Amino acid sequence: MIVAGACVQGTAHLAAAQGCQDAFKAVDLGGAAVLAVSDGAGSRERSALGAHLAVDAACRVLVQDLPDAGAAPERWTRWIAGRGQRVVEAYLRAVAGVLAADTGAAPPERTPPERTPPDPGALAATLTAAVVAPPWVAFVSVGDGFAALLTRDDRGHLVLPPPAGPAPFLSSPGAALRVRTFTVWEPELGGVFLATDGLAALALDHPSVHGLPPEAGPLPAAGFFAGVAASLRASGGDAEPLRRLLSGPDAARTGDDLTLLCALAGEG
Question: Which residues sit opposite 260 in a β-bridge?
Fold first, then answer.
């Protein structure tokens, strides 16, 4: 399995002297992989740290007790549903620890009733994560990231579209109840791609491009994911093709930070 990712600071962020607020992390388990991307809230000063805490929490939780690839569908569905809530809880614990260390305050569970605990929204971030264990892919999502699959015949499928309305952050009230989890069984799985919302303008087409009404929702841009997969296979998994893509003129026009992370199944 080839696992590769890249993150590039957006041109608007660069012009405003604002650091990159995206983060990604992957754990290669040989025949399986855990992927996570996060986008820190642009209006929050410490959201870049929140994004790194988010991907770290997701990978730590999702590598635990991974079902076998041959497990029943019900096993995969129950497992990822439970893990989704645990990811949010792990992120909130990490954020609380950071804020307590900064302020010298007690962690929330030991904060006196009269003292207001630090606001986790200071490190607000989204999360899109996946466990790739062919033929299974299990997803966890909070926020506006998106995910696509590529089959072995190079057909791209948008399995997790960006939300149509305002999306929550991991630090939003009730985030553990708003986390989206689902599984996909694809015996012809060729690759899995996770992206932050800044990449949507480059990787996704408006339905009108394909002669469809707006309610059809976005679709993978023709050849985008297949082209990325071909470049990574040709490079032997070196992420340089991804960095060039995210640094190119088309990507630069979005102005936002851009992150793309993928796992490509072995051929044959």
Answer: 6, 195
Contact 24, 257 (CB under 8 A): no
pLDDT digits over 18-42, tens only? 667 889 999 999 889 999 999 987 6
Asked whether the beta carbons of 65 and 79 are under 8 A apart, the reply is yes
Count of domains observed in the chain: 1
Contact in structure between 183 and 73 (CB atoms under 8 Å): yes
* 231: phi then psi, degrees, rounded to nearest 5: -65, -40
CATH number at residue 60: 3.60.40.10
Q: Which range of residues forms the domain containing residue 181?
A: 2-264
Nearest to 150 by CA among 42, 53, 222, 64: 222
List Cβ neighbours of 166 (8 Å cut-off, separation of 6 or more). none
pTM score of the predicted model: 0.89
What pLDDT is stored for residue 266 in this prediction?
Answer: 76
